[in-house]
Amino acid sequence: MKATLLCGLLLLGTGSTVASAQAPTTLNLYSEGDVNVKDLWEKDLIPMFQKANPGIRVNLVFSAHGANSQSTLDRMAAAKQAGKVSGVDILEGPVEDAAQKGLLDKLSAQKVPLLARVSPNVVARAGSYGVPYRASSVVLAYDSTKVKNPPKTLSALIEWIGKNPGQFTYNAPDTGGSGNALVTRILKLGIPAAEAGTFETDYDASKEKYWEQGFTTLKKLAPNLYQNGQYSQNNVGTLQLLGKGAISMGPVWSDMGLSYLAQGLLPANIKLTQIDPPLSGGAAYIGVAADSANKAAAYTFLNWLLTPDVQAVVANKMNGYPGVQLKYMPAAVQDKFGDMAGDYSFGFSSKFNADMTRMWYERVAGTPQPQK
């Protein structure tokens, strides 16, 4: 009898174990993304978790490329309005949208102890409604045989482009996040620190006057780009130009760059590094439904995701940064991401981003923005 009473949910600070004399708790995990995300859950993380936590089962409900994510949010919202349970326990994907609608549980280090190992600004980005279990950012890729001392700051990068005409390029800000991140970072040159948050989460067109310095800089850089001012087609286009030696440096997504290197699509002499202040990036957040009847088990699952061994699997499988700060990771992971994953910044809000893109075509490319 005592053993039965003592069986229950035990949440530990560095890992989680669940034991139960009753039937296992089932967590419904709603996730979205490409096939690599589905494989990560099905082939790696869920089997690992269930082996370590035999009292919890995880049921994956996957939305390929987010096709069903809106219907999931609608289901959660309808359940809230009706005072019922949606059946969603854990949500990966539209965490910020769900949080804004009051559909998620606010998280803390008291509920998820290892959340204390995540950079506070990354946690705050999702309003503390999501655990970032993996991330990526835009970094500089460079040919180490030609560039012995890559730029470490934005000002050094701008200077390098000017002194090495034809050896750098980026894609238009609406054709891929790598080019968008570079344009955003340069536009931030003229934004006062006190106004930075407005550009990331709010909108006020009158503040776009602060972009003047950045657009002037981008316009001056244009003639020094690849083939006297040619932009790459997209994220992949920059990687391809690097791969065939047409340029010596360009902005790329960290996970794409690492994947290309691992597949031999980039030669080993291509290296990746981050600048200061860093280019923008983002995390994949996972949250707990506010109406979940299994919150304790969900906290166990989220805490387990942030343990070093699990984070190492995520980093290796996805070629993405760990969700926790790099100092908490094994040496092999620190070595892999050491020049990249120190930190990353955040892009502009959707309305500012739309204005930025339109103005970039007009003021830098000198052409109207293509209609899509």
TrEMBL record:
UniProt keyword list: Signal
Stretch forming the signal peptide: 1-21
Keyword Transferase: no
Pfam families per record: SBP_bac_8 (PF13416)
Signal is among the record's keywords: yes
Gene3D superfamilies for this protein: Periplasmic binding protein-like II (3.40.190.10)
Official protein name in the record: ABC transporter substrate-binding protein
Protein species of origin: Deinococcus metalli
